[in-house]
Amino acid sequence: MTYTLDLFIKDAQSALHGTSGPAGREKVRILLEKLLANPAFVDEAVGPAAPTGTRKLYEDKELGFVVLAHCNPKPHKSPPHDHGSSWAVYGQAIKYTDMSEYRRVDGGNGAGDARLEQVKTYRLEPGRAGVYDVGAIHAIDYPEGSRFVRVTGRDLDHVQRLKFDTAAGKAITIESATTGAAG
What we know:
Elements: H1 5-18, H2 22-36, H3 39-46, E1 53-59, E2 66-71, E3 76-77, E4 88-94, E5 97-104, E6 112-113, E7 116-124, E8 129-132, E9 137-142, E10 147-152, E11 161-165, E12 170-174
Antiparallel strand pairs: 1-2, 2-10, 3-9, 4-8, 4-10, 5-7, 5-9, 6-12, 11-12
């Protein structure tokens, strides 16, 4: 039987209900790799005919997780950032994404002065997925035409997050329309 988005959603719900914390998120990563092995899903969700940009494929009303398709027409390199109180699983579908992971070495945990140390760098190739747990600091770098599926623990429009300006040594709150200014 072909593994579909509907089956992935059902299995992800089961994994997150049955196993809280990092172990459940690791199960979601494995399930996302299984979904990315379905060429029909990849073609429909992020293939050449899919619209460019980011679009929501599914949002779980009970558990809050969101499945997003990212179809990137231009190359992009993000600054180091976190997903605040959410987690994320990035699953590469087309081309690649270079991932860098960091740890904060200044002892802080909010906006303000911040120093980071890069601890890991690797490439997500098609069919591979990586987990970025709550508060994990990472950066992404992808070429034109890179496409991936990202599962987040919550809609990030409702989560206060940080981005890091490593040259200035600062952590900056990411403002979104729904989280409002940091207080």
